[in-house]
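Lecture 7 notes: from sequence to structure.
We start with the chain below.
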Amino acid sequence: MENPLLPFFYFFCLLGFVLLPAEAAVKNYQFNIQVRNVSRLCHDKPIVTVNGMFPGPTIYVREGDRVLVNVTNHAQYNMSIHWHGLKQYRNGWADGPAYITQCPIKTGNSFVYDFNVTGQRGTLWWHAHIFWLRATVYGAIVIMPKQGTLFPFPQPEGEVNVLLGEWWNNDVEEIVEQGNKLGLPPNMSDAHTINGKPGPLFPCSDKRVWFMHCHLEIHTSWGLKTAFVVENGKGVDQSVVPPPKDLPPC
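Predicted structure tokens for the same chain:
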């Protein structure tokens, strides 16, 4: 005769399995520090990048994950990476400031940053933490909630990281060195950027775009403006509506 309590036993075993917390994942990233030619404002120059990207790659993790970032330095400069805003519990050696928590990574060498994402969610950023290399060596860190934890807002159809930066037509290290010799601050940047782009009003910029800018007039004059390409979607209601005939001309 089957025990009448047996179904309840199976139910609670299944319930316990479902309620087990998800194990934290280990996220591995490879950062190759390399020099690449990039053109902005009609000026082409070599810059230090991560994986040849400007800005660099985005790190996607979940709260509770362990992150391993292997940084291999192929550039002529020493390098270190700082994970800005990330709380380093008991592993400050992974924080990244050169000559403070670590010696820099020399040319031809590698170092693995090993840290945990604890009690944080949201969007932070990482950047070089030696010399002025952070002018081109930077990117976003997106920390999502733990698996099964809902966002405190309706899920959007898409997300876009917005990274504010600056662009100098000349080599940033030479600019800093010149300022130090003269006892003056370094020259101001030639443009502010959003996601590495100075915006459509600057020379040699893409004109087939829609405009977006910081809504402070002085910031716009500095270059805190960019644009994004708008394409038609697949659905009938996802196409771009044509402008009205009486739209004022520019």
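Points to note: Residues 8-20 have pLDDT under 50 and may be disordered. The longest helix spans residues 6-18.
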